[in-house]
Amino acid sequence: MSNLRQIKKYPNRRLYDTSESRYITLSDIRRLVIDRLEFEVIEKTTHEDITDRILLQVLAEQELSDEPILGREFLLQTIRLYGSTLRRSVSECLRQSVSSLVSQSSDSRQLSSNSEIVVRG
After folding, report:
1. What's the whole-model pTM score?
2. Domain coordinates of the chain in residue numbers?
3. In angstroms, how far apart are the furthest CA atoms of the chain?
4. How many whole angstroms separate alpha carbon 64 and alpha carbon 57?
5. In the structure, what pLDDT confidence band is assigned to residue 119 with cuts at 50, 70 and 90?
6. Residue of 82, 116, 81 lying closest to 98 (CA atoms)
7. 3-state DSSP call for residue 6?
8. Cβ atoms 17, 5 nearer than 8 A
9. Taking 50 as the threshold, does the pLDDT of residue 1 lie above it?
10. Mean of pLDDT over the chain
């Protein structure tokens, strides 16, 4: 798949975009998501796909901004769900809810371009 960008994460925590032959930051990863470019992040030493972990770091960075989306109560409840039998149901419900919200919003074009994550994996 030629459109798939491969990002390598080195042991020193640096991310390297093999398509552009340069080191990138989490902000650059966020830009890839917003631009809907397909990518995967591979741990250099283990060859493990760690895309989800990197996306979680991008999300955490966004939550530290002046306008967080999730909030403390949501985060607390979500943490409590790990290990629960409800985990899968809640995960699917959240996915569907966000998709529905994006498609129904009056700003759906902006939300869609800013919130859909296109990754391989």
Report:
1. 0.76
2. 1-68, 70-116
3. 45
4. 11
5. very low
6. 116
7. strand
8. yes
9. no
10. 86
Q: Vertex 28, ends 25 and 30: CA angle to 5°?
A: 115
Cβ neighbours, 10 Å, residue 107? 9
Residue 27 to residues 34, 79, 82, 118: CA-CA distances in angstroms? Answer: 10, 25, 28, 16
Q: Which two tokens stand for residue 3?
A: 């459109």
Structure confidence at residue 41 as a pLDDT band (50, 70, 90): very high
CB proximity list for 55: less than 8 A, separation 6 or greater? 29, 33, 117, 119
Six token digits for residue 90: 């809640």
At 46-84, the pLDDT tens digits run 999 999 999 999 999 999 988 888 988 999 999 999 988
CB atoms within 10 A of CB 54: 20
Angle, in degrees to the nearest 10, between helices 71-81 and 87-104: 140
